[in-house]
Amino acid sequence: MSTKHQELANFIWSVADLLRGDYKQSEYGRVILPLTVLRRLDCVLEPTKDAVLARHRQLKDMGVQNMDPVLRKTAGLSFYNTSEMSFRKLLGDQDHVALNLRAYIGGFSPGAVDVLEKYGFDTQISRLSEAGLLYQVVAKFADIDLHPDVVSNHQMGYVFEELIRRFSEISNETAGEHFTPREVIKLMVNLLLAPDEDDLITPGIVRKVYDPACGTGGMLSEAQDHIQEHNPHATVEVYGQELNGETYAICRSDMMLKGGDPTKIAYGNSFNQDGHEDERFDYMLANPPFGVEWKKVEPFIKAEHARGHAGRFGAGLPRINDGSLLFLQHMISKMKRPDDGGSRLAIVFNGSPLFTGAAGSGESEIRRWVLENDLLEGIVALPEQLFYNTGISTYFWIITNRKDPARQRKVVLLDGRDYWTKMRKSLGDKRKMLTDEHIAELTRAYVDALSIADDPEHPQHAQVKVFKTTDFGYQRITVERPLRLRFEVTEETIALLAEARAVLKYAHREALLAAANSLLSTASKTRAEFAMKLSGLGNLPTAVEKAVWEAFSVSDPEGEVQRDRKGRPLADADLRDNENVPMGEEIHDYFKREVLPHAPDAWVDEIKTKIGYEIPFNRHFYVYQVPRPLGQIDAEIKMLEEEIQALLGRVTR
Questions:
Q1: What is the pTM of this model?
Q2: I need a labelling partner for 327 at 20 to 30 A (CA). Which of 213, 398, 539, 611 fits?
Q3: What pLDDT, in 10s, does the model give residues 530-562?
Q4: Which of 297, 333, 291 lies closest to 313, judged by CA?
Q5: 633 burial level (CB within 10 Å; 0-12, 13-18, 19+)
Q6: Alpha-carbon distance 410 to 371, whole Å?
């Protein structure tokens, strides 16, 4: 940001001096941001204000109901105001500032009014009025000249983004929900757009950018700026959607102040209120909330999942307490077809989507769909403590449906966890940051990684690895062992029989238990022999007879193998195990090599075999560290013990 932008942002933020004491620091933005928007709109509308008022009176006298299109045309903008008030006129009636300010806001066109309502600014008007601050605050903003001849749309965008950044950072307890650190966004945009640098300079290009969880709009702004820095004549249309009302208002305001189309920022839940249902985009970015459940929209999502790939969630449903992979599917559904140029998208995840869920689970099936359709280009691991509201590990996933032929069926993993510098002052959980040098290095490393995917002979980097998509797949086999039993009547097995549900309901329970006690210490290694000894119990109902056998059967590694009526061994559920066989390897070869030497009587229940996918990032970049010598560890323990004894000695004196 230039010095001029910084000075203007500083001047606007100086309003906080008036608010101190009546407002918490984290609440300053609730006043400063909407009033900045109002003052900018007031200045932008000033040249056509008289014409709009005259036209409004004329249309009203004519009884015209739908004045909106005509008044927009008269204003030459996507918004207008039909109130006689302005910021200057508000100051002319000191006793009725609140009343007149509300009337002024009510005179805006519907879209602008919606933004101000989402800010909840009416509450702040009352609060400022009760504190005796409203006139002073409005007067302060009236002194700020935000006319387009003085502050261009581009400059205004920078100023507003600086105000948003300050608001978010002093509200760091919740900032991470709606605001992504600027340097993280810059890296994300670089990774998303770097492979397309040559295409971006094409004269007259039009690119659509989308964020389904846009927060304050930082990712959209950075992507737009990046493209237009490479090609000032490019047309960049930005689209977004946001669930939080105040954050939606900030994002939409930012678009209005830059002269963009604010109607392309939709309000609501992207899952069940898709504000851009029929749109397709060239680029998409998102930092969706981590670990947020989707129970509120569960019926809608399950209904759409039932439609298969005709809907957005056909690949699978993740567990109810984390909707991250729903955002991924939603964004993939917005990709252009490869024949129409295809799309690229980047999304921020924590570690969970890499591996959560066993084979056949919703998460695994979503990963399987992404990889088998060759949509995953790469994953970049980021340092911990990079975001405001979480210190955990985070990852960029880069998705595309237009890979170059040499990169098809390949995935790049880039370990960027060592690229960081410590912040002078922590902001919430954010204790680390990326410098411009880190961003440049990681961008180069990623582009080089794509070259490695193109050319297997390309020099490898320690932090970069290239895999086939099938390297992340596996076959989860179920290994069974035979059920081996011995049979005996003991006090313990009789106690089990007495508590069996079927026996508790049996009319002749006492007689049965007495007969069982008469067989105390009876035992046998074979079922047939034991059946002969139980004949004294008489004919029993089927359920009771089953309870008898379950009670008197004891698992025994040396016992008789139990078989079904066709002579096949029955499986022992307690000995059941699972093995993950790498994709492409013959299951029986693996079984013969890895299982049979340890369990010669085992077999594979092939009906239960499932395909799974996971991306064990940490395993692929694990570096073995030689343990310290035992003597060194013993010496340290001895030293610590001596220190503890010395401290205890001081306490007990």
A1: 0.84
A2: 611
A3: 888 888 788 889 999 999 999 999 999 999 999
A4: 333
A5: exposed
A6: 9
